[in-house]
Amino acid sequence: MHELSITEHLLEYCLTKAAEQNAVKIRSVRLCIGALKGIVPECIQTYLDLLAEGTIAEGMQVQAKILPLKIRCKDCGRNSEISSRQLFCPHCKGLHLQILSGKEFYIDSLEVDIDGNQSLTSDHGME
Predict the structure, then answer these.
(1) Contact, 60 vs 41, CB < 8 A?
(2) Fewest Cβ atoms nearer than 10 Å: which of 24, 60, 110, 121?
(3) Would the annotation count 9 as a binding residue?
């Protein structure tokens, strides 16, 4: 259910950024989501379809890239990519891990129409 709150903030942010560009339509938003965030892109799309009704974001498509969980083992010193189900070092089986990535959540880009012309506006501002 936390996707509802996330989607509300996401929509508000996208509408603000689109207004700054004098956009008339928001086509899509590209999100980067860390594997540990537990965010389901399909849920964001479902909530967005409801919340964006009657705005320039109506019909906006969510595109998501899931970023891998990367760790550094404090026992053997090696960096690895692991799954959220395998919370140990694949090299030495150590449990003393430092998370290097996998908790991110940000907007990579917005695709908008400005006066009938499609353009791509990049922004890395939401985490």
Answers:
(1) no
(2) 24
(3) no
Check the annotation: does 43 bind a ligand.
Answer: no
Tokens 């928001």 map to which residue? 26
Q: What is the pLDDT of residues 12-50, one digit of tens each?
A: 999 999 999 999 999 999 999 999 999 999 999 999 999
Phi, psi of 79 (to 5 degrees): -95, 145
Tokens 């891998």 correspond to 68
- 50: closest CA among 63, 59, 41? 59
- Checking if the pLDDT of 127 tops 50, the result is no
Q: Are 56 and 26 in contact (CB under 8 A)?
A: yes
Helix-, strand-, coil-residue percentages of the chain, each rounded to 5: 25, 35, 40
Distance, CA of 85 to CA of 92 (rounded, Å): 17
Instruction: Provide the strand spans (E) within 2-127.
Output: 25-34, 61-67, 69-73, 79-82, 97-101, 105-114, 117-122
